[in-house]
Amino acid sequence: MKHLLILVTYKLKSGMRDAFLKTMSESGILEEVLKEDGIVRYHYYLDESNPDIILLVEEWLTAEHQKKHLETPHMTRFQPIKAEYILETIVEKAEI
């Protein structure tokens, strides 16, 4: 069975990377995501040449697992964090 791979590029408001990462760490959202059924990996990667870019790599067993993820309370809690720190989100999906 193929997994769902999602690459999420966050373009942050200028100079907000450290504050965003700290807020995410303190929120407990990442720990909750990693406990979800169907999650394989969920990792942030920093762009060394542009401090206002973060890449999130998500891998899910199925698209249904990822769909349920988007409906969780912790993802609802993520929305105001996203609004505070992120200017643009680019999402790319592939089966692997």
List keywords for this structure.
single chain, oxidoreductase, EC 1.-.-.-, monooxygenase activity, Alpha-Beta Plaits, monooxygenase, Quinol monooxygenase, four-stranded antiparallel sheet, 4 helices
What does this protein structure show overall?
The chain has 96 residues and is of the alpha+beta class. It has one domain: Alpha-Beta Plaits (2-Layer Sandwich). The protein has four helices and four strands. Strands 2-3-1-4 form a four-stranded antiparallel sheet. The longest helix is centred in the C-terminal third of the chain and has 13 residues, at 73-85. Residues 4-96 form the ABM domain. GO terms for molecular function: monooxygenase activity. It is an enzyme of class 1 (oxidoreductase). It comes from Hominiventricola aquisgranensis. It holds the Pfam family ABM.
